[in-house]
Amino acid sequence: QLQLVESGGGLVQPGGSLRLSCAASGFTLHYYAIGWFRQAPGKEREGVSCISPRGGVTKYPASVKGRFTISRDNAKNTVYLQMNKLEPEDTAVYYCAVRENGMATLVAGSYDSWGQGTQVTVSS
To answer: Are 106 and 47 in contact (CB under 8 A)?
Structure first.
């Protein structure tokens, strides 16, 4: 069973930064596509970043491009999401997910296993 655990969420002021971590257990993470998603109350789950197996390709929607960066640390079997210049609109529960077969995509339905989520709140 592929298990993921997110951490690093919290309360931050507008313009601040956070780094989220997605730690994998039970499998070697860099063989798979990993996505980061977020869901705010009353809204659909939105893809905010993804990274291909072995990290050669990354994708971001326009809403976070230039502010968010996804990366891998294969030695730690962990994927990170560095979030800079945070805005109140970034407030949501953030999830990481693994896609067992196929390339990285920002489509939530393409992913097979999900972490429990970590809350990010951007507020002054």
So the answer is: yes
Exposure of 62 by Cβ count < 10 A (0-12 exposed, 13-18 middle, 19+ buried)?
exposed
Sole residue written with tokens 């257990």: 25
Binning pLDDT at 50, 70 and 90, where does residue 2 land?
confident
Element (H, E) at 74: none
Do residues 115 and 95 make contact, with C-beta atoms less than 8 angstroms apart?
A: yes
With b for 16 or more beta-carbon neighbours within 10 A and e for fewer, the 21-37 pattern comes to bbbbeebebbebbbbbb
- Percentage with pLDDT > 90 across the chain: 90
Single out the residue of 42, 44, 51, 49 nearest to residue 64, CA to CA: 49
